[in-house]
Specification:
alpha/beta, 7 strands, single chain, 7-stranded parallel β-sheet, 40% helix, globular
């Protein structure tokens, strides 16, 4: 038994329990209702999991493409009761949002969808487990950063994903080298680019150009 992993997994569960103590009675009832609603729907094809509001921007390119080029219904699970996805779903009926907080652990173990996409690593290593109900789910990991795959990630963080959508050449090099070093099965590595930067580039191209006659300073956080 990997006791270090067990301790880390318990720490993650403790965080969920602490979160439960802060949830209002109204949101607890809402989560219970959304949990039942999620499992009342059969033949779910595409599921996204978001840790909190603000993560939609990483999924946006994929979801908007699916909405425009298919008839799929997007099932979107979020652990944030105030996630902006609920307002977006009011305008887009093919997005079905669910608030799942402390019951995420149980929901993931009972997952019955064809494809599950997330930006959180370490699937099946800690509190988020692969489904015990279906063994043919395709789990897809999507990066929400464009830098190294190992500087801030644990060894084996991507081992249980069937597909990894990497965002650049440095990531594919590191992922393939990790497979060689640790002898892990070769996964499906897909060059997906980085939608957030692509969206910013499109917005920049559409901006009206202005000419300044004074020195311009760019101030960034890092």
């Amino acid at each position: 038994m990997n006791y270090d992993a067990l301790v880390e997994s318990k720490a993650e569960l403790d965080k969920l329990n602490a979160l439960s103590a802060k949830v209002s009675p109204e949101d607890k009832r809402r989560e219970k209702a959304d949990y039942k609603r999620f499992f009342s729907i059969a033949n779910k094809h595409q599921v996204f999991y978001s840790e909190k509001s603000g993560f939609y921007k990483y999924f946006a390119g994929v979801i908007e493409y699916l909405l425009a080029h298919s008839n799929l219904t997007i099932h979107y699970i979020t652990s944030d009761p105030k996630d902006a996805i609920f307002q977006k779903a009011e305008r887009e009926p093919r997005i079905k949002p669910y608030y799942i907080g402390v019951h995420l652990y149980h929901l993931m173990m009972k997952m019955d969808a064809d494809i599950v996409v997330m930006t959180i690593p370490d699937l099946d290593n800690f509190h988020i487990k692969c489904s015990y109900v279906r063994k043919d789910i395709e789990y897809i990991y999507m990066f929400h950063w464009i830098t190294s795959t190992y500087m801030i990630i644990r060894e084996g963080a991507f081992d249980h994903f069937d597909t990894v959508l990497y965002s650049g050449p440095c990531q594919i090099t590191e992922l393939q080298r990790a497979e060689e070093l640790y002898g892990t099965p070769k996964g499906n590595l897909v060059d997906a680019g980085y939608g957030l930067i692509e969206t910013l580039e499109q917005q920049y191209q559409q901006m009206e150009r202005q000419t300044y006659n004074c020195l311009q300073l760019l101030i960034g956080p890092s």
